[in-house]
């Protein structure tokens, strides 16, 4: 197909100039100096103005030198384009030349499936059912506590009182619902949904894009009038319409008296992008469920632990790295408090050491401010009190271990006991100490009566039953959660692509056809979105098409014949 690049400039209000570069143009459009007026349809009053088309024959050298400066083009041809898959009465279908090649990647894999299998997988009700199943399993995973020991499920879902009359611990452990997101049922449903998305993309979305990219000319005015929008310009030129459409962002193609224009083709590609983004999200989620490590530990201030001793694999794709040999030292643990005395935030100062004992990084973490190093992340999730450091009768210091207590629903309550007298006696008595945080310690005598409150590091002594006690320090423990999750970057990329392609999918793919019959131009068009705005846009464009004045045409014809 021979193609012409056509750009236009005229005197205002049409500031474009028209260039031709092939003898083919002469058969469809002869550049003339013609006084023209604004085209009016029957419902508009005529308004005349004049303008001039300036035409310049371009040499091949000019084309080579100026090709980069042409941002818009109208492609004209009198050679029939290649036939497409769709055809109709009075239409000629074709497409721009593209390189053919074998499908690769996921689409190449899908292409090998039998057509019957692809038809089943791309079935919409099946895909909806798969998505509903995945959503239901995810909801069930939030109801059932994940990663607990079997004994936990024995107690919470006993066979004596099954949930809904049948659901017991046997269902949970047999189906793997204690690790829902790495269970065979969940991963199998996710894989089936991914196969359906790829099948739908290959059988439906890609063919739609190929059809949308074809140059679809209509040679019949009757076919054009059947479009969603149509109108007739009684005295106009199809080339003038093409110039205006080009200025409005359309890609314009001319073949003889026929015109085809489109814009918003990216909106046709968006569903493919949405499907690929969903596949990325599912792939990332699957990798997170089957290839990550997780673990938690409570470490008193001043102690160490090795990352690999805490982390445990979550699936068959979990592979440890060299960073698992990193040693973590808890330098300090402390809290922030509200004016009311309640805990507002807690912090842990951590140092990380390599195998040679060299500190590789140090950071004070808190809730929502984790430490990341070597592919693993350390989160601040909890706290406790591990010990009280005291002086007894000016001797010590002694470390008394604190134990968590549950009294009257208190979430955080820790206690310890200091024996008084013979500690070997079966009826040993002593001083009790309770704490809800690291700010203050409440002390009780041997009879359980309140004796007083002391703050750690205040160095204020208290005498209880003849024993002098000084609270030196309350040693806190930091609750840390460690995790490696190789699927997070993939999931983030998938959600980013999903948001972008979802916005692009709202772009309207608009198509316009026109055919010249004498001095009459029949125009029609359609769009897949913005149905209400499309007629308004068309009316605005058609109102700007210059109307050819009949007297000017006769004078020019007389001049040429004379």
Automatic annotation (TrEMBL):
It comes from Juglans regia. This is ResB-like domain-containing protein. GO terms for biological process: cytochrome complex assembly. Keywords: Cytochrome c-type biogenesis, Membrane, Transmembrane, Transmembrane helix. It is found in: Membrane. InterPro entries: Cyt_c_bgen_Ccs1/CcsB/ResB, ResB-like_domain. Residues 126-386, 448-538 form the ResB-like domain. The lineage of its organism: Eukaryota, Viridiplantae, Streptophyta, Embryophyta, Tracheophyta. It is a multi-pass membrane protein. Coiled coil: none annotated. GO terms for cellular component: membrane. The chain crosses the membrane at residues 117-144, 185-204, 265-287.
